[in-house]
Amino acid sequence: MSNVTATPLTAEDFREFVHRPENADKWFELDRGEVIELPPPNKPHGVVCGNAVWMLGNYVRQRRKGYITSNDSGVILERDPDTVRGPDVALYEDAQKFDDLHPKYGEVAPRLAVEVLSPNDRADRIMRKMMDYLRNGVGLVWLIDPQARLVTVYRPDGPPYDVHEHEELTGHDVLPELRCKVADFFFVPEG
After folding, report:
1. CA separation (Å) from 175 to 20, 72, 112, 133?
2. What does the pLDDT read at residue 34?
3. In the chain, what are the domains?
4. What's the CA gap between 109 and 86, in Å, rounded?
5. Strands 112-116, 140-145: parallel, antiparallel or unpaired by DSSP?
6. What is the mean pLDDT of residues 151-163?
7. In angstroms, rounded to a whole number, what is the distance separating the alpha carbons of residues 185 and 49?
8. Nearest residue to 27 (alpha-carbon basis) of 108, 168, 51, 17
9. pLDDT tens, 116-135?
10. Residue 31 contacts by C-beta under 8 Å, 6 or more apart in sequence?
11. CB–CB of 96/65 below 8 Å?
């Protein structure tokens, strides 16, 4: 990851920046006005995100409430200086129908943010991102580690803890009916 601009940007300036033609195949976040270039995702990252979307999508369809975003759909977490994060997968409850979705970066935090570690992620930046989510209204954060095959759970009211591949995750009081097996994030059909 690297810093891309010298001048602090607003969320609106950042949106224009990421949509420039020269940035078409790059990934960015805005951290307190500073543009950070992220590494491109790899295939294991994409599989884990796809499985998370599938499991959480089933959950919102069953309860008929909420919606899922993926592909680093941006959310403004802070203003002045602005921070725009793009969770790998997120579950929101701020819209009742497709036409209600914010057309750019929304400012309502997701109920659940899911991040998938990449091999070259820096621990300090990951921790900063986790704390940004929790400080700005995200009730539950799952940090999935494909190499260790575990999920670290972050909540605003307690220390983080690990849930291993053979165990089950819950949505706690944020998403009370949510239960899923950690192993399902790493599922690829055999045969």
Report:
1. 37, 21, 8, 16
2. 96
3. 40-186 (3.90.1570.10)
4. 11
5. parallel
6. 97
7. 8
8. 17
9. 998 888 888 899 999 999 99
10. 83, 128, 132
11. no
Question: What DSSP element (H or E) covers 46?
Answer: helix 43-63
The answer, yes or no, to whether residue 10 has pLDDT greater than 90, is: yes
- The residue whose two tokens read 């607003």 is 10
**pLDDT at residue 3, as a whole number:** 60
pLDDT tens-digit series, residues 37-95? 988 888 999 999 999 999 999 999 999 999 999 988 999 999 999 999 999 999 999 99
Partners of 154 in beta bridges: 141
3-class DSSP string for 78-137: ECCCCEEECCCEEEECCCCCHHHCCCCCECCCCCEEEEECCCCCCHHHHHHHHHHHHHCC
Q: How far apart are CA 172 and CA 186, in angstroms?
A: 22
